[in-house]
Amino acid sequence: MSDYKFFDQVNKAFDKAAKYTRFDKGLLEQMKFCNDVLHITFPLERDNGSIEVIHGWRVEHSHHKLPTKGGIRYSMTVNEDETMALAALMTYKCAVVDVPFGGAKGGIKIDPSKYSEAELERITRRYTFQLYKKNFIGPGSDVPAPDYGTSAREMGWVLDTYRQISSDINAEGCVTGKPIGQGGIRGRTEATGRGVFFGVQEACSNKEDMKAIGLDPGIEGKTFVVQGLGNVGFHAAKYLIEGGAKMVGVAEMDGSIYSDNGIDLAKLMEYKNETGGVVGFEGTKTLENNAAVLEAECDILVPAALENQLKESNAPNIKAKIIAEAANGPTTSEAHEIMKERGALIIPDNFLNAGGVTVSYFEWLKNIQHVRFGRMEKRFEENSFRRILSVIETISERKFTDQELQFLAHGAGEEELVDSGLQDTMVNSYNEINEIRKKHDVDLRTAAFISAINKVGGLYERMGIFP
Ligand code: NAD
Question: I need a surface site. Which of 55, 237, 266, 358 has the fewest CB within 10 A?
Answer without folding.
Answer: 266
